[in-house]
């Protein structure tokens, strides 16, 4: 039954092309996690034969060839397309069960929320669910700020690629060179929103390097079913816990950043922290800081522990004179340099 559950999931998949060898390898990978002995290809063949002809299900399984799924035949000295397998009916499952009223209610509410994202309603499966659950008449009760995309289907395409673990080829451009287009094959892991802009977090297929692409720089995507998807080995969410925004540096250290905020802005910073690690210093630590910085007679002292990046510096500078970085010296000097450069540019406008 464990093998049948795994096979049922793989044969229902319309986003990947699986040969018998692929099915055998994936089943064995899943069994290994459960500490179950591996099986051979012949066992998978018998399982499929049982589902087709001997079980109560009498499943119709489609055998087809797919572009990019092939091998080199030594005897004939030519490339031979391999046969892939899947359910003929993409909606079929031997473990399908009816949805409860509670599940229908929860799904309806989630689809109402998710359907507000640009592009997602273009997914035919989502649109079918919306119609079946009568969401067209649902009142919108949550409104999310969003940055409109020139390609309204892009979010849906990337959402599908991430959820179905598909390797994709993306065509994109850089902000500094909008006339030149670039292509890269990536393994998509996460869609992340920051400051009203969506980003794709992925790994390059050629070297597994973690990359970040703003969705408004992606021109098009193409799924590559024949490519084997690689999971991300580390905890991706944890890696982003130590930064503000999406710019992640591999070798930068975690910094303990102490800063002062004026009375005008301290309540805003208290209620809307710059980072999850933010602390407000009181009592002994505040007394120490006031002795060290006697010119700061009012306001409040805070700290965050994160890796310095472009977004963090921009956030700290966005408060102007109402936020002063005190430690470490490297970040304080970087901000001073940026302010000095900015002042020089404004000075030029006065002449």
SSE topology sketch:
Elements: H1 2-11, H2 20-33, H3 41-54, E1 61-73, E2 78-87, H4 101-114, H5 124-132, H6 154-163, E3 168-174, E4 177-194, E5 197-204, E6 210-214, E7 218-223, H7 236-239, E8 255-261, H8 263-271, E9 279-281, H9 283-292, E10 300-306, H10 310-317, E11 323-327, H11 329-350
Antiparallel strand pairs: 1-2, 3-4, 3-7, 4-5, 5-6, 8-10, 8-11, 9-10
Helix pairs in contact: 1-2
Keywords:
four-stranded antiparallel β-sheet; 25% strand; 35% helix; five-stranded antiparallel β-sheet; elongated; alpha+beta; 11 strands; 351 residues
Helical fraction equals 25-40%
Overall radius of gyration: 27 Å
Distance between the termini: 80 Å
Care to count the β-strands?
A: 11
Roughly what is the average pLDDT, rounded to an integer?
85
Count of helices? 11
Give the strand order of the largest sheet, numbering strands 1, 2, ... along the chain.
Answer: 6-5-4-3-7
Taken in chain order, the helices and strands follow as HHHEEHHHEEEEEHEHEHEHEH
Strand content: 25-35%
Q: Give the overall silhouette.
A: elongated
Which structural class best describes the helix and strand composition? alpha+beta
């Amino acid at each position: 039954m464990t093998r049948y559950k795994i096979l049922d999931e793989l044969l229902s998949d319309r986003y990947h092309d699986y040969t018998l060898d692929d099915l055998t390898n994936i089943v064995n990978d899943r069994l290994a996690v459960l500490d179950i002995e591996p099986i051979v290809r012949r066992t998978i063949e018998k399982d499929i034969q049982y589902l087709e002809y001997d079980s109560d299900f009498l499943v119709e399984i489609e055998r087809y060839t797919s572009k990019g799924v092939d091998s080199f035949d030594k005897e004939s000295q030519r490339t031979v397309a391999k046969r892939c397998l899947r359910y003929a009916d993409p909606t079929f499952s031997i473990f399908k069960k009816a949805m409860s009223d509670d599940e229908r209610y929860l799904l309806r509410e989630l689809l109402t929320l998710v359907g507000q994202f640009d592009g997602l309603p273009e997914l035919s499966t989502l649109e079918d669910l919306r119609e079946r659950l009568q969401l067209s008449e649902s009142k919108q009760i949550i409104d999310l700020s969003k940055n409109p995309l020139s390609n309204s289907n892009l979010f849906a395409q990337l959402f599908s690629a991430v959820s179905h673990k598909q390797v994709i080829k993306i065509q994109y451009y850089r902000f500094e060179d909008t006339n030149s287009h670039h292509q890269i094959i990536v393994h998509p892991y996460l869609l992340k929103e920051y400051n009203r802009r969506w980003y794709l977090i992925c790994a390059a297929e050629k070297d597994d390097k973690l990359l970040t692409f703003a969705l408004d720089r992606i021109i098009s995507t193409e799924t590559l079913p024949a490519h084997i998807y690689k999971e991300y080995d580390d905890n991706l969410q944890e890696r982003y816990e130590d930064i503000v925004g999406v710019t992640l540096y591999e070798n930068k250290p975690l910094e303990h950043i102490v800063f002062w905020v004026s009375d005008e802005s301290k309540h805003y910073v208290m209620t809307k922290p710059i980072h999850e690690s933010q602390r407000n210093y009181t009592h002994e630590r505040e007394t120490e800081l006031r002795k060290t910085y006697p010119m700061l007679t009012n306001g409040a002292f805070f700290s965050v522990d994160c890796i310095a990046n472009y977004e963090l510096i921009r956030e700290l500078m966005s408060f102007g004179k109402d936020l002063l970085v005190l430690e470490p010296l490297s970040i304080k000097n970087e901000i001073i340099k940026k302010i000095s450069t900015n002042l020089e540019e404004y000075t030029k406008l006065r002449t």
